[in-house]
Amino acid sequence: xxxxxxxxxxxxxxxxxxxxxxxxxxxxxxxxxxxxxxxxxxxxxxxxxxxxxxxxxxxxxxxxxxxxxxxxxxxxxxxxxxxxxxxxxxxxxxxxxxxxxxxxxxxxxxxxxxxxxxxxxxxxxxxxxxxxxxxxxxxxxxxxxxxxxxxxxxxxxxxxxxxxxxxxxxxxxxxxxxxxxxxxxxxxxxxxxxxxxxxxxxxxxxxxxxxxxxxxxxxxxxxxxxxxxxxxxxxxxxxxxxxxxxxxxxxxxxxxxxxxxxxxxxxxxxxxxxxxxxxxxxxxxxxxxxxxxxxxxxxxxxxxxxxxxxxxxxxxxxxxxxxxxxxxxxxxxxxxxxxxxxxxxxxxxxxxxxxxxxxxxxxxxxxxxxxxxxxxxxxxxxxxxxxxxxxxxxxxxxxxxxxxxxxxxxxxxxxxxxxxxxxxxxxxxxxxxxxxxxxxxxxxxxxxxxxxxxxxxxxxxxxxxxxxxxxxxxxxxxxxxxxxxxxxxxxxxxxxxxxxxxxxxxxxxxxxxxxxxxxxxxxxxxxxxxxxxxxxxxxxxxxxxxxxxxxxxxxxxxxxxxxxxxxx
Length: 568
Known about the structure:
alpha+beta, six-stranded mixed sheet, 24 helices
């Protein structure tokens, strides 16, 4: 009995040390493995070994271990913990659909768990996963649930770190918040989460251009972070420090950490750290005049950036599909429940014919109501999916495909009624420089502000769309060319007036406009687009930030002054 108690105590000790002291954790596992264990103790040891494999980045081996536990006779609590770890693994490996499946199972299993500590861990893993798929509002919600459930010190640390990560994603994090210091204080024994918190704070300082604060957050604990052997954490820290070094023109240090990030993150999938590292290496090679290497790194940077953006889209799609499937499953379960009730009622109907008729009618009404509800629910889901297909996700204006359909319908109507339709095409000037210099986040901010500024100038029935990266168009049914010129000038002025200080950078936003109408280009959409594009190209050629009108007779465009409206 004494040996059995010692083994249980040692297993519990190893469980406590698994994230705070990896070296001592592994040593304890080696000690336990030499002992004679009963079935449940062996399952527990297997779980801890699986955690160790996960910690070392060996996900394939660890997944096999946890699935074996889920299909074994292990106790419910251990199965619950194995399922939790699988959720975390699928988050790291970016297998979002599998992760969401196990997360749904997590919410089912948690109802059977009475242990508060384990329940808190279940809520925490939900916060972790939702943060990973960038559903930060849900991530913050579950982190707050952990914080409000009287958690242990370890779980308090975890919840604080997850809340900070979600707030950073929601752009709600303030580096002078007293909550940050409280979070760090709660993680004095949890090296990994404390390091993640420092990393989150450092990223916020990096966005603000305060490199000294970046060094202060990360440099003192860099050696301890490296000793954790946690690839995701180390890669994030390396990439953040490399960005700060490059900002301070410390080329050697930036190159070294960027190369380390690339080598370290090979097994982590498509991460922001890899994108950042390749961009840094590209910029360093370009600064050094090594254009062959610069080209190679730029290709890798572009590939990594595209893969990372594709992963973000995949996350959102996986989440939307999971929501749709969950709603559909609930409807099916409700329908099956109603059908079961119908069968039970039919048995009772045999007793009394009068009661039979009464109950039968009641059940028919209930089923029809349920089917109507299910049909309405399906309709709303389809409507939401249709909206996603018709609107640009970033700017919330029409996308190119839907614009083409609506504009074509408007042209057909205007042609049948012999009414005018004007077409405006504009493109943001030097937008690539904004993206390259300040980052895609700033570029996205500019696109959203431009869309909002232009929407405020037109009518509700104007057909406004984003048809390319930084290219927008407006179709104006029933509007003359003079009205289109006035609207274009209003949009040009509104764009030029955008205040960019909110981004933390100083730059100007302007756009070049091209205008045509059905009197000049006819009622073919392709011709309207081509003629407006020619006019817009003339605006670019003649100095940008101006308006040009297509001239069909001279096969050229008529430039408009950028500060006034000219008569045709």
